[in-house]
């Protein structure tokens, strides 16, 4: 049985705090977290799960997730909407815990202290 992985949760609502959560594996859990169908944006050693229908529903913009994605080195063309779930990924494509450099970056950018 697979263990849980540590995810960085970046809610779209600015009033909701950014946090860390140990989550299990499975598409159904990711769909629950993003409140719909899952889409991903892939970075180097990490990825973020988003609701792939966010523009059409519409879901609220998520400027914190967008800033974190851009600061992590990706140039995204569209705005980011809805809750964002950041995880790491292994070379075989398996989810792993969110990389430490993303946690450090999020703490610096959003002036918060993250603890699991």
Could you explain the architecture of this structure?
The protein is α+β, with helices and mostly antiparallel strands and 116 residues long. 24% of the residues lie in helices and 26% in strands. It has 3 helices and 6 strands. Strands 1, 2, 3, 4, 5 and 6 form a 6-stranded antiparallel beta sheet that branches. The longest helix has 11 residues, at 100-110.
Itemize the secondary structure elements and their pairings.
Elements: E1 5-10, E2 19-23, H1 27-34, E3 38-42, E4 46-51, H2 63-71, E5 84-89, E6 95-96, H3 100-110
Antiparallel strand pairs: 1-2, 1-5, 3-4, 4-5, 5-6
Helix pairs in contact: 2-3
Helix content: 10-25%
Strand content: 25-35%
Largest beta sheet, briefly? Answer: 6 strands, antiparallel
- The helix/strand class is alpha+beta
Compact description:
This protein is of the alpha+beta class and 116 residues long. It has helices spanning 27-34, 63-71, 100-110; strands at residues 5-10, 19-23, 38-42, 46-51, 84-89, 95-96.
Question: Notable features of this structure?
Answer:
alpha+beta, 116 residues, six-stranded antiparallel sheet
């Amino acid at each position: 049985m697979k263990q849980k992985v540590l995810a960085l949760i970046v809610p779209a609502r600015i009033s909701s705090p950014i946090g860390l959560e140990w989550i299990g594996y499975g598409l159904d859990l990711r769909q629950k977290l993003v409140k719909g169908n899952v889409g991903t944006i892939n970075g180097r050693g990490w990825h973020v799960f988003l609701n792939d229908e966010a523009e059409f529903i519409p879901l609220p913009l998520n400027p914190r997730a967008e800033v974190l994605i851009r600061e992590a080195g990706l140039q995204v063309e569209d705005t980011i909407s809805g809750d964002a779930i950041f995880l790491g990924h292994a070379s075989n494509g398996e989810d792993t815990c969110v990389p430490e450099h993303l946690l450090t970056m999020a703490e610096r950018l959003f002036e918060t202290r993250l603890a699991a």
